[in-house]
Design the sequence.
């Protein structure tokens, strides 16, 4: 007596009909199917035979009753457990073949073995062996659209046998074939049965059912009759004789098996992206723009910050500036006129001070012949150059003695030289500053950029007595001696000037204070612009999610096929997550590359716009693009993994 493989006990199945009323399709089916049987389930359209087959193949679950497979109840099985049964116990042969159109015949046959973690070499060898036995040796690398109907059905049969196919479920396997190909398929099923495979055939054709040993007629959701066909294929009591598959437990449970499945999913993702090239590119565009925005903002902000910090740091950490007003931002500071040259003399006598320079500033209109420019005029002493580490590229700087003797001399920067002396030496030439002739004695080092601001430097005594007629200073710059505490120096300077002025109408600003202030301001603006840039990334991510939802809808049938041949929910989710992440990572790489190219090009054309890329920011940008793929790809991937196999297979 053959062993019972499948047993249905009082199986009922109901569906919602759209009006909250349930329609019962199966009404208490009781059925046993033994090992090695060839069973045909026949009935007219709408009789419930396809629903019954879907329950037998674990594509659907009954509303009531119990279904027992090999002495194990399926009532409380999780979706992945049912997928395991479909993958390792059943083999499906569909009327419409349900082959994956972007895969070759060999690759279609291998899919169930991928989900079963069969080693790649073994599954290729087995797929080729079965296709050769089914007469498709010359069609192994052909895609379904290059195969006839009969050839596609034989590929479908080979796929059903890939993991052993102990039970073959054939749903109208000859329905889409001509009579010749239909006979060939039935002969293959008879041969498989003779080798030990249990065959369950769903058909409405009595001639096809005649090949079976046992014929069950179903009508209106109930078994109407059952008889043994003496002319059909005989029931074999035998020891299982169909091909064994060598699954290594160490391989199946290893990380290698996981990476093998991941690699196959990645290959399928690339194929899906390539098949929709334009759509993939347009989807990437949102990510590319977003990543470019973020990387460029960070690079330009970092470049500007580095430049400012470098300029301030060149003064050293032991520099103090005395400014009028009680505090930074004091609106009454312009009315404070108590900083004078006498304060400079008093400060010079302090033992902790290395050098001190007065500064007086004003805007100035500079002319030379028919050339003219607006500049900022700085009235300083020679100590100013040492405080800010400025050197002369041409000529010389004025001396300490000249600073107090009202000489009509001037030192210009590289920008002013470029504007007024584009094709000749500047040293020894005269320029008009605020209507007064001054002799150029030196040009500061640096690269000229006429689009940047221009500065000229004159002795403070010259500016105060000859150019603007003023007896008070704009500020005082102090450099402390090395290794002297700035905090102690600040207290001493404050006390000295308070005693001289009779009140505190000034405040001190150190290099460290300026750096902290600039850093805070730069951080705030960078974060503000980054927030705006991240909006474009958000829009790009929403675009990815939208396209992935469209992709899930377009490929619902493919998802159903993969589920029918044993794909786990995690396999389906991984498939679509890989696609989303790949699109975003590719967009991220393109965005980073384009932003670096654009940034370096702009910086080269406009030197005043410094750019600074850091490896950390580029890596963060790529990780961000990956995270966007994971976050915005999760919902479509989860929706795909939660599809009902029956509904998915029915989608055209």
Sequence:
């Amino acid at each position: 007596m053959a062993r019972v493989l499948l047993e249905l006990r009082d199986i009922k199945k109901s569906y919602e009909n759209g009006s909250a009323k349930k329609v019962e399709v199966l009404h208490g089916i009781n059925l046993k199917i033994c090992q090695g049987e060839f069973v045909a389930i026949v009935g007219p359209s709408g009789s419930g035979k396809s629903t019954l087959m879907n329950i037998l193949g674990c594509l659907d679950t009954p509303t009531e009753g119990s279904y027992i497979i090999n002495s194990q109840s399926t009532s409380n099985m999780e979706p992945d457990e049912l997928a395991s049964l479909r993958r390792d116990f059943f083999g499906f042969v569909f009327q419409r073949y349900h082959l994956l159109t972007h895969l070759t015949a060999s690759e279609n046959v291998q899919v169930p073995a991928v989900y079963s973690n069969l080693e790649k070499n073994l599954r290729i060898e087995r797929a080729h062996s079965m296709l050769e036995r089914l007469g498709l040796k010359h069609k192994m690398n052909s895609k379904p659209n290059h195969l006839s109907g009969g050839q596609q059905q034989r590929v479908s049969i080979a796929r059903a046998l890939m993991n052993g196919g102990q039970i073959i479920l054939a749903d109208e396997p000859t329905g889409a074939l001509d009579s010749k190909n239909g006979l060939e398929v039935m002969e293959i099923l008879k041969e498989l049965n003779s080798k030990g495979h249990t065959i369950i055939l769903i058909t409405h054709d009595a001639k096809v059912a005649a090949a079976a040993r046992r014929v069950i007629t179903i009508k209106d959701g109930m078994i109407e009759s059952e008889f043994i066909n003496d002319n059909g294929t005989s029931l074999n009591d035998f020891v299982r004789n169909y091909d064994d598959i060598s699954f290594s437990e160490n391989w199946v449970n290893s990380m290698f098996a996981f990476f093998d499945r991941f690699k196959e999913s990645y290959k399928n993702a690339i194929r899906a992206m390539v098949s929709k090239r334009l759509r993939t590119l347009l989807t990437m565009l949102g990510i590319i723009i977003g990543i470019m925005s973020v990387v460029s903002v960070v690079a330009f902000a970092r470049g500007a910050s580095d430049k400012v910090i470098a300029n301030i740091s060149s003064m050293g950490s032991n520099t103090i500036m005395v400014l009028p007003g009680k505090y930074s931002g004091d609106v009454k500071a312009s009315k404070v006129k108590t900083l004078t040259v006498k304060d400079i003399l008093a400060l010079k006598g302090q033992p902790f001070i290395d050098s001190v320079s007065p500064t007086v500033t004003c805007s100035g209109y500079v002319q030379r012949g028919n050339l003219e420019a607006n500049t900022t005029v700085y009235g300083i002493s020679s100590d100013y150059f040492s405080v800010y580490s400025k050197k002369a590229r041409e000529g010389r700087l004025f001396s300490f003695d000249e600073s107090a003797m009202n000489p009509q001399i001037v030192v210009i920067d590289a920008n002013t030289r470029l504007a007024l002396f584009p094709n000749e030496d500047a040293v020894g030439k005269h320029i008009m500053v605020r209507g007064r002739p001054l002799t150029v004695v030196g040009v500061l080092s640096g690269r000229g950029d006429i689009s940047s601001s221009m500065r000229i430097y004159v002795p403070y005594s010259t500016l105060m007595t000859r150019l603007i007629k003023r007896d008070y200073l704009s500020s005082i710059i102090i450099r402390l001696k090395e290794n002297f505490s700035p905090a102690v120096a600040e207290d001493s300077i404050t006390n000295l000037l308070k005693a001289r002025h009779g009140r505190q109408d000034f405040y001190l600003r150190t290099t460290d204070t300026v750096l902290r202030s600039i850093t805070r301001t730069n951080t705030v603006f960078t974060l503000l612009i980054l927030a705006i840039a991240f909006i474009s990334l958000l829009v790009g991510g929403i675009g990815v999610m939208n396209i992935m939802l469209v992709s899930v809808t377009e490929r619902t049938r493919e998802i159903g096929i993969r589920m029918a041949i044993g794909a786990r929910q995690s396999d389906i989710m991984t498939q679509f997550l890989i696609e989303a992440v790949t699109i975003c990572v590719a967009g991220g790489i393109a965005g980073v590359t384009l932003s670096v190219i654009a940034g370096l090009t702009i910086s080269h054309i406009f030197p005043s716009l410094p750019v600074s890329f850091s490896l950390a920011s580029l890596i963060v940008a790529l990780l961000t693009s990956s995270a966007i793929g994971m976050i915005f790809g999760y919902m479509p991937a989860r929706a795909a993994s939660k599809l009902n196999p029956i509904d998915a297979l029915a989608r055209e």
Q: What stands out?
A: The radius of gyration is 43 Å. The first strand starts at residue 4 and ends at 16. Residues 234-252 have pLDDT under 50 and may be disordered. The chain is about 45% helix and 20% strand.
